[in-house]
Amino acid sequence: MLRATLKSLLARKLRLVLSGLAVVLGVMFVSGAFVLTDTLGRSFDAVFSTAYSEVDVAVSAKPKVAVSEFEGEQVAANFPASTVDKIRSVPGVATATGVISADGARVIGTNGKVVTSFGPPQLGGNWTGDDELVELRSGRGPTRDDEIAVNATVAEAAKIKVGDRVGVLTLAPKREFTLVGVFGYSGGRDSLGGVQEVMFTEPVAQQLMLGEKGVYNSVVVRSADGVAATALRDDIARALGDQYVVKTGEQLSDEASAGLKEGLAFFNNILLGFAGVALFVGIFLILNTFSIIVAQRTRELALMRAVGGSRRQIIGAVLVEAVVIGLIAALLGLGAGVGVGALLAYVFGQFGGGLELAPIGVPVAAVVSAFVVGVLVTVVAATLPALRASRIPPIAAMQDVATPDRPLTRLTVAGAAVAAVGGALLALGLSGNAGDNTLWTILGGVLVSFVGVALLTPLISKPVVALLGRIFSWSVPGKLGRLNSGRNPRRTAITAAALMVGIALVTGVTVILNSAKSSLTALAEETIQAELVISGAQTGPRLPSFDPAVLDRAAALPGVRVVAGLYGDMAMVGGERTYVTATSDVSALRGIYKATPTSGSIDRIGPRQLLVDAKTARERGVAVGSTLLVQLTRGEQQTYTVTGIYAESDLFGGFVVPVEAARDFAVPQPNLGYLQLDPGTPVDRVLPQVEALLADSPEVSVADRASFIEQQTGQFDQLLLMIQVLLALAILIAVLGIVNTLALSVLERTRELGLLRAIGLGRGATMWMVTVEAVVISVFGALLGVAVGTGLGAAVVRALRDQGITNLVLPWSQAAVFLVLAALVGGIAAVLPAIRAARLNVLGAIAHE
Amino acid sequence: MTATVARDNQVAARANDVWKVYGSGEAQVMALRGVSVEFERSRFTAIMGPSGSGKSTLMHCLAGLDSVTRGQISIGDTTVTGLGDAGLTRLRRDKVGFIFQQFNLLPTLSARENILLPLAIAGRKPDPAWFDTVIDTVGLRDRLGHRPAQLSGGQQQRVACARALVARPEVIFADEPTGNLDSRAGAEVLNFLRNSVKEHDQTIVMVTHDPAAASYADRVVFLADGQVVTELTGPTPETVLDTMKRLDVLAEADV
Ligand SMILES: Nc1ncnc2c1ncn2[C@@H]1O[C@H](COP(=O)(O)OP(=O)(O)OP(=O)(O)O)[C@@H](O)[C@H]1O
Ligand SMILES: [Mg+2]
């Protein structure tokens, strides 16, 4: 029995390849994810152990505002030079060096643009001389206050060399320095994991990176010979008290590495998401392939039963075939996954600013998951066809005609039930009553709904395919193609359902994002009352900012009526971490954001006074006159009094502190600026003047209101494009499914094709017939996908109404594009099977058994 | 031995010294060895011979379904030998009709659609009067809307006959059209074929194993070992059976 199975398997290599391809892709992403994380993880370990190789113990002060990773960057508190002396006096300390090293030193390249970073920090610090770790490549360290040295990665990205005048943005607006040195790190590295470093003299670093004179934000300690780092760490911690964080270099290295690995989990999830979609669609493909195979081999299987094979043996025969396909696919997928993982690691290394990669490894987890996933998915998909095969009666061996179409009632009832469960899960998830499991409930709901719709598809396919086919019925081959596509509703349905999944996901996301974009645009257009806006595109964790002096200069321009700059940061307010804003002109808020007071006054704000929106006030239980303790990123904790409460809006809310307090923000510069012009002043006249003012703030630019809103909402378009590209994969797999179904159908109908050719159907007409079948199936799938996706998207949008997504944008144009694309894709999928059909030897086809 | 010579314009199909060799070397099979035969217009010719004698091969070659190794085939005034796929397709469309032993119909189409399929493919309008005549002769009027799966084997074969007739081809080739039918259903089909020759001047060439079936024809051509050995005009089941029995001897004598 086993040998018979394997033989028939080998005899049908094409089928094997096609049905296995989706599993190969899925497994590829799964194992690729593991390889990527493993390789990058080891690379990070290597980088950080180098970075901290010269540190036995490091000391920093506790941050004043503890910030989680998702809310922004945590800024360690500064401490005076006396702390360094204190550490130096601890027994066992050989050297203690006060170090300044803070994120936010942005170099302006020779092209006038800011050198950006997609993740690794842009550190600015004090030059403490070269050592075992830091190696000067050219020039020297900075000795005068207008000199800097940069690491090789910065020098290369900014295209600057020793002797150049270089602009640097820090806590302060742009300042120019002379580049006197370029350095690298031990082992010939240009950078430690893509980190950009700019070194100033100590006083300049203190001023520009910490915002205070005579302070440091960390101390690097080398221990005396024979003193253990851990012991020294404990001694220093004891000497300094609990306001300080004391760690060994090894600890810091591990923590830094662990932090980045956590960030990697995000990438991992994206890859696993791909894998999930690929495998889900793959299940449809395999199920269909096996169903067709079983149908084709009905007589063969019946014969096996007739000569004494048991039902179990038949199931076994089909499942063995599935296991073999699964194993082969897993093996190929694993191989491809290692390739993809290595490639992504390489790309990541390049974009991450030259991360030096550890050798590519294949972790056990990758191997195990590849085989488990590959075999499991294939076997699960083959179970249904296997059961069906086992129900073939032995008598079918003697009957000529294949078993007639079974009625769809049971399938339809099951489909309706499953779809209902999916819908219920979705409703539960979207209603927000699922608690922590919301995301999973929604995802589960989407998946289950897909399965339900797929089960219902055979029923829908009859009328819809008939209707679609009318378009092609003007020619005989077209009509034959239409009839063929309606011939086996189950087969057509599953093939189309595979396409449906991809298109439904794309459509759903499109509906959600376009609705969000439209709602936001409408909101912004209605709310923001400013003719010109200064803003920049965020590339890293920190918002782009600009010189506050620009605000005053812009206000002085003729025709400009009001200018308001906006600052923002995380702070502790009343013991809770919250986002606070400050604006250079509080009274402008009313005009620009249409903010209206509900109690107190929001036109003025004095020192240590707070404004707050009504909703937050309710939640916090504060009213005008309440006092709250406020701790900003820098400076001491102070008591603030609430003096005004305004009606909340979707665009502006939270606590507002006086602009003077923004000096103690992590970034003490505005990141948004609104300009209102005198009535009748042409925007075109003021815009270039403001542009000129921003010459030294290259992170931001000025735009009129419409372009600003477009810029802000443009992110939705980018996101949408990205998701569409990603989901194209699912559609690609579905196309493979169409190719597969058609190839098998052509094979199955060999005699029929022979007959048609014998009575005069030309090659071209034969190809057209196959193409029409493919196009009808794929357009049907696209129609389903658009319908289901629109439904899902609309449900999500509806559920997000409270979040401010009030407009539902239906994807008419996208739907049209998808349908046309589907027709195209169907045509492409038909190419090979059609050629095959046209090339059939007429005589051979007629004699075909 | 050469078949009865007729005036050129009366020949519907002709094979001229046709050789057909399958495979090469050890596995070489000479299916046809210098067959020359003509089939006259408006006549019903049967081809008989032992299994493996090359009947089907000859018919496939005549119909342009298979190429010949040597020799020439023509249908009406068209020389089939040397035609490309497009030419062969046109030939099948316009000049030739087929009836196979089984699997003659497309399962997705109704009987009427199956019958009209060759015309539809060729983009020709059916002649309604002729269509009615054909339908009435095969006696399928009340079955036209049915799918092949809903028809008996004999009915299916009659639909196949109607399909071959409706396009009025130069010649219809039938390979054991009654092979799968019982004697009554077979007789219906054969009667119908004979009538279409008698009443509508159709030309039919039929391969058969069955002497009774062959007796419906005007003429029987006997093949043995890839060669034409003899022929009968105005056959009866008895004379056909008799000739079949003597076929081995005749073949020997011929070599
Ligand atoms: N495609 C082929 N390849 C090789 N040999 C073939 C092929 N087709 C037919 N033959 C051989 O050619 C010879 C004639 O075959 P053909 O099918 O014409 O016989 P037949 O007279 O129709 O027999 P039957 O009455 O059994 O149908 C046989 O010996 C057969 O084995
Ligand atoms: Mg034969």
Give the N-terminus to C-terminus distance of chain A in angstroms. Answer: 23 Å
Classify the secondary structure makeup of chain B into a structural class.
Answer: alpha/beta
Query: Assembly state here?
Result: heterodimer
Lateral arrangement of strands in the main beta sheet of chain B: 6-7-8-3-9-10
Give the number of DSSP strands of chain B: 10
Helix/strand-derived class of chain A? alpha+beta
Domain tally of chain B: 1
Written as H for each helix and E for each strand, in order along the chain, the element string of chain B is: EEEHEEHEHHHEHEHEEH
Tally of DSSP helical segments of chain A: 23
Q: What's the CATH architecture of chain B?
A: 3-Layer(aba) Sandwich
Compute the CA-based radius of gyration of chain A: 33 Å
CATH superfamily of chain B: P-loop containing nucleotide triphosphate hydrolases
Number of strands of chain A: 24
Number of helices of chain B: 8
CATH class of chain B: Alpha Beta
Range of helix content of chain A = 55-70%
In helices, the fraction of residues of chain B equals 25-40%
* Beta content of chain A: 15-25%
Domain ABC transporter (chain B): 13-250
Organism (chain B): Micromonospora pattaloongensis
Family (chain B): Belongs to the ABC transporter superfamily.
Protein name (chain B): Putative ABC transport system ATP-binding protein
Description:
Chain A: GO terms for molecular function: transmembrane transporter activity. Chain A: This is Putative ABC transport system permease protein. Chain A: It is found in: Cell membrane. Helices cover 55% and strands 15% of the residues of chain A. Chain A is an alpha+beta fold and 849 residues long. Among the domains of chain A are: 213 residues, no CATH class; 216 residues, no CATH class; 147 residues, no CATH class. In chain A, the strands form four sheets. In chain A, strands 15, 16, 17, 18, 19, 20, 21, 22, 23 and 24 form a ten-stranded mixed β-sheet that branches. In chain A, strands 4, 5, 6, 7, 8, 9, 10 and 11 form an eight-stranded mixed β-sheet that branches. In chain A, a hairpin with a 2-residue loop joins strand 16 and strand 17. In chain A, helix 7 packs across helix 14 and helix 12 runs antiparallel to helix 13. About 1% of the residues of chain A have low confidence. Helices cover 37% and strands 25% of the residues of chain B. The longest helix of chain B has 18 residues. Chain B has 255 residues and is an alpha/beta fold. Chain B starts with 10 loop residues before the first strand and ends with a helix. Chain B has a six-stranded mixed β-sheet with strand order 6-7-8-3-9-10, with helices on both faces. The N terminus of chain B is likely disordered. In chain B, helix 3 packs parallel to helix 5, helix 4 packs antiparallel against helix 5 and helix 5 packs parallel to helix 6. At the A-B interface, helix 13, helix 20 and helix 23 of A face helix 2 and helix 3 of B. The site of magnesium ion has 2 residues of chain B, from helix 1. Adenosine-5'-triphosphate binds next to strand 2 and helix 1 of chain B.
